[in-house]
Structure formats: C-alpha cells, structure tokens
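ok so i was messing around last nite and threw this chain in just to see what happens. nothing serious, just curious
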Amino acid sequence: MKTITYFKKIFQNIILSFLLIHPIETILGQCADLNPPLLILKELDISIRGNKYTLNATDFVFKATDDCSHFNDLKFSFAIDTNTKIKTFTMGLNPTAFGVSIFATDQSGKFTEQRIKLFLRQCPIDLICKTEVNIGLLRGSELTLHQDLFLLEEYCHDAQFEYYYYSTNNNQYVKFTKIDDSFPSNFPYKIVDLESGSSCIGMVNLTLLDCSLIADLFVKPTKNKTTSCFEDVSPEKLGFPVSYPIIANGINKYLVIVGNIKYNLSYSDNYIVKNCQNPNQGAQIERTWKMAENACNNALIEYIDLDQLVNLNNFKTNLFKDQNIYLNKQFSEINDDDIKSTSKEVIDNLSFQCNKFYFSYRDISFKFEDLCEGSYYKVLRNWEILDWCTGNVYNYIQVILIWGSNRDSIPPVLICKNFIHVYMPDNALTLELWARDFTIQAYDSCGIVSYSFDKQGKQVSRVFNRQDISKTFALDIYVIDRAGSQSHCETSVTIVGKVETSSKTIVNGKIFNYLLQPIKNTLINLILQ
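result:
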C-alpha cells in the first residue's frame, strides 16, 4: 500500500554563503515591499543534563534579509504568530532530532517559513577545558565570562558554572566573573559545574591593546568594488578590509586573528537605489566595518557598485527542468546528502557570464513507499534568485523524483493462445482485436498495467479489414506490470471470412474408437476455406 509521508527539508545547502543582514534601506525613492524576507537557518546540536531545553527562535537564525525592513525590525518566531518567540523542547532518545519551523516576518507582515534540524543529546559527565585561552583586551575595558570562552563544545548547556583564577597574592583560586586590565598577563583558571561538582583547569594569556593599534589593522580601499546585481555580495566573496586570517563568529560578525589575539569585526550595509524607475542602472551598497566597536570608535566605510548585467526575465527556465534521478542504492539508504546533491547541476550552471547568482533554494519532500512501482522521493524545489539592484526575487519550481534500486524486477507470468482463427462477419468492414484476447493467463504480484502489441505498451489493439481475410498474421504480445517489468510471447491469428459447406461426400469410410470398434451414425461436416 502506498503511503505518503511528509518529511523535513530545510532551506539550507547554501551556495549563497552569507546573506546581508542589514540590507535594503532605500535612500532614494519609496520602497514597495513586494517580497517576504529571505532566511537562512543554522542547525543546532546541544548537549544537556536534563530532558528539556528552551530556545529562542533567533538562536536558529544564521542570515536574514528583507527588501524594506532592517534586520533589527524583522521578527523571528516558531509560528505565524510572531509572539511565539520561545519554545521548550523535550528530549526522548539520546540523541533526539527535531524538525523545527522558523518564521521571519517583516514590517509589512510578509513572512518566510524555513525548517531546520535540532539535536538534543546528553552531555558528558566530565568537563574538558581549553588548554590555553588567548584574550586581547582594550585598556580600560572588561570582558564578561562565559563558558564558551573556556570549555570545549560538548558541555552541559543547561548547567550552572562558576569561574576561578589563581591569585598569587594568597596562593589560591579566587572566584571571578569578569576580566579587566588589572589582571596579570598569564594566570591559571578553573571552571566548576555547580551540580555535578566536576571541574577542569587551563591557562589564560591576556594581552592589553590600544584603539590606535586596532585602527591600523584596517586596509583602506583605494577605489569602489564592482560586481553584478545578481552576484554574491558577501565579504566572503568580495573580500575583507584586513589582511589577517578571518573566521565567522555569528550574524555579520567575525574574528580577526592577529598572532594569539582575536579581534571582533562586524559590518552593516546601507542599500542605495540609484534610480527606482530604471532597473538597468544598478545600485550601490555602503558597507560600514567596525573593529572592537564596544570599546573603540574605529570604523571603515567602503562602497560596492552593482551593475545590472543580466535580465532574468529572459533567463533560460529550462535550467530548472524536472528530473528523474536513479541512485544505485537501496531506497532506505537514501539520505539528506543524496537529496541535496541533486541541486549540483543547477548550481554549476548558475555560474553564468562570469557571474555567480545570489540564489538559494528550499525543498519540500514527499516520501512514497511502494515496492512494486518502486519507493521514491518527490522533491518540490523552489529556487529563489535575488536581484540586489531592484529587490526583485525570481522564483522557479523544479520537480525532482529520486528513485532507489529496490523496485520490483520480476517479470509477469504470461501464457498466450496459439494459432487463433477469427471470423469477420459479412456485414463488417473492419475487425478490431485486443492484445488481452490473445492471452490464456497473465499474472504478476504487482498487478498488470497493460496488454499491448508493442514494447512501449501503447498499441493495445489492432484493426483488420476485409482485405486481410484468409491471411495469417504473426503477433507479439507484451504485458507490463506496475514496476515496469515486461513479459513477451508470440502467437498468430488467421482472419476467416464467410463459412462455406458442401453436400458432396468427399470422404467415405468408417470411424473407429480406441478399441478399433466402428462408431455408427457419425456425421462428418468438412469446412472448406
């Protein structure tokens, strides 16, 4: 029996790498909010001691942007009701996987729903501290402590911790909650789990910094950057204003690694429409960078010019054509990565005219389980391509069927009739015969779909006329089951016209039974053709 099971698929698999968070503040002209926000989520894997954990909808947000609403004005929730910002999850098995829906709603009320995974698992009993923690601190500032600073990832997120540093004044560990410029350049630390009592130790290396030194880390641009309206405009694509290693550290936030010190780096964008009436003129992004913004007033502004090089209204929509994909693995072994990999062909082709389109897609997948026809996934893939110059979002729907290798492959049982004579009535000009009439038996556990005279299952009947009388025709009979398996047999048919009889006795003699005894009163009629 066929069952249809809706299962998750999320708006992830991101070639668009990172979306703008503070994107479209229209400097010139009135912004017409026609599109819902674009939203990218991040998967969470959280270790807990109990069986319940509470999360905010924003905890799942990786990137978000909207044509007319600033990021700070977007509302993130677990339902269409924007007030459902907090949700408690209960862990069953270890680990427990959840499919979570997150809604992003802009100021006009338009919303986007995306789905993502959450994993809750039991945390280990022992704490594992980082051997060394390198901290760069501006003079006159302070740093509030958090367990992420000291512990490796798999700690109990629902636990309470206390922090201690080793004081050389009294030769013992002293409780502390903040670090400021009064601390020594090197000191041991200890973190304690208040419930389990487990603890671990490590070493802090503290470097004091000046704002003037941080400002010198920026590389000032000599000219505007230029790209396409449809190209990825993230810093990962266009570059950063520093020459040191960069790692992502949140929404539009990064860490600049200079030696053993990590500096906070962030940016925000103003989106400037050059001419709302002329979408071919392009636009400009004003990007403001800040380094250690909580302590220093260091900022760098760069401009990105956007050119309208491609008209997506004339884009070849056959790029998003429907697909049938057959995988050489059992259906039960098909996983999320297999489904995600089916987007590769389109993604490769979106590298078009030296432009990498700023695009994303989201999947809605259905699972069909049927051993006869073959179990398969039906994926409705909604591609979205964003035009930074106009704020337009282009949508294309692609239907993808993903099959496993475990469909029925046993052909049907087929037995055909042989040497059939069919009479054509005197008043008939034509005679139609059906492929099914030439079978004695046709059987398959998955059911017979078609009887035909051809392999494709299309010619289910044949028509003969009066010129075919007295002729014999060789026929091929095919049956196809629901899984597409096929069986074949050969037979023949002779078309017979009017039956003629003769009163003349052309055969004379006796007929005997098997004991060679004569059979009396036997009438013999011979049909002449």
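not much to say yet. The mean pLDDT is 77.
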